[in-house]
Amino acid sequence: KNAGANSTQKTYVVGTEPYFPPFEYAEENNSKNIVGFDVDLINAIAADQGFKVQWKDLEFDALIPALQSGQIDMIASGMTITEERENAVDFTEPYINAGLALAVAVSNEEIKGVDDLKGKVAAVQQGSTGSHEAEKLKAEGKIGDIIYLAHVNDIILNIQNERADFTINDLPVTQAFMSQNPGVIKIVDDELTSDSYGFAVKSGNTELLTMLNQGLENVKQDGTYDQIMTKYF
Ligand code: GLN
Q1: pLDDT of 64 strictly over 60
Q2: Which of 65, 91, 121, 165 has the fewest other C-beta atoms within 10 Å?
Q3: For the chain, how are helix, strand and coil distributed in percent, rounded to 5?
Q4: Ligand 1 near 129 CB (within 6 A)
């Protein structure tokens, strides 16, 4: 690659909520450097397609509005492809499977599955598919109250101090938390739903969508995707 070609490369702003290991998180406490599966994958796609990226840190429920208003060009934030979101943004092809799991404190002997949640309090991430699932169960009278929090760590704290009885969150994220912090929570149902993540662009931005899909296909074929997989899982 020559400097001339690089200087003409376009820069796209990527929105992410970087408190979601192993997909996007600060390298160390207080570090501004965001690392993770999504970060490596987007960087690999950008290198393949010849564009540059600039990361922008936003709360999860601010990502779609930021994309619609043009503040960011794409979302790479462990975002589950849903029908509702498809109405607001355009998703790439799915890039990883990540359904919802039900988790409780390791010491909880009472909750063994969804049928044991009557009157129990959920801690979920604001605007996440886990929160949507909790709302569905609540409407059906199958659970008690819902506590909404910004980040995964806050969810765990609420389970630890017994303000909440359970959480519904993405399986790979829950598993990553458990392997980093053994003895805190356990999974009692690992397939509440089967979903997958996609990167999102503004509705109608076919130029960027095509590059992302083409890049994704290329990095899957050349082995880069598998390397990133092995690095984080
Ligand atoms: N995958 C979940 C969703 O899309 C949570 C994503 C996240 O918190 N980054 O709602």
Answers
A1: yes
A2: 65
A3: 40, 25, 40
A4: yes
